[in-house]
Fold this protein.
Amino acid sequence: MCHSNDLGDHLMLDGIRVAHCNACDFMFSRETMQAVAIDQFYIDGYHDQRHMDGQRVNATININVLRRFCPQLSGRSLLDVGSGYGFLLDKARDCASIAGVELSRAQYDYSTKTLGLKTYRSLEDLAAEDRFDIITLFEVIEHIPEPREFVLRICEHLKPGGSLIIGTDNFASNVVKVLGGQFPKWIPHEHVSFFTGTTLTGMLERLGPLKLAGVRSFTPWELQARRLMFSATAGRKGGKTYSYETERNVDEAAGYRFFPLRIAINRIWFALASGSNLNGEMMYIHTIKR
Ligand SMILES: [Zn+2]
């Protein structure tokens, strides 16, 4: 992030080092795939029942975040980058126009054919002059090896005065501190940029075109439960040791655990548990283009 060479190892996960920059506190996976290989990974794969269920669950939260930061959607254009199957866009049809960007072919097909949503295959498919009132980036930036350049690129498609909303995990949150290396979102072959409230707001403010307009965070109840279990059993239950082999071999048709329960609770959990700070495990930042 800051091009310093003053790096330390934060964690070692199944052979992949998570580095910590001593100059700017940014954390990132080392020994990641080349950019082309990463794109191909998302284009060809990245489609199964677990992804679909997980995105349905996340959409119940993300629509709340969007409406909290941008209460008036009618008359405004929305671009969701990393739109997946399109569940968030489907809930934001009161916008004047909605569109997504999705690399995964299978998710793109569902978004366009099943939900009938305008979807681009990549940012390169947008016309240079395309501008939007609101751009959302939910659970995307942790997958991007060059987040600064990526956000600047996205800013080019934002109207002056337009909103960019970013949601990602907070790797300095209490749950991460308690679970340590057993926090389930350390998935270093997919998640390569690990932010905290400070490193994310710092990066956004230093970019130039964006000014901070609001923050929100909460801790998902599933992670609260894991943290309590982990503490109560002195680390025997609740954590999850990362293994690429195990990740690859999970039953992809099995779907998401407790899916109906998660949908039901999430509808109220964000309203109950979120606050105007960046202390929670999921953090959301609203920025406005100057
Ligand atoms: Zn740095």
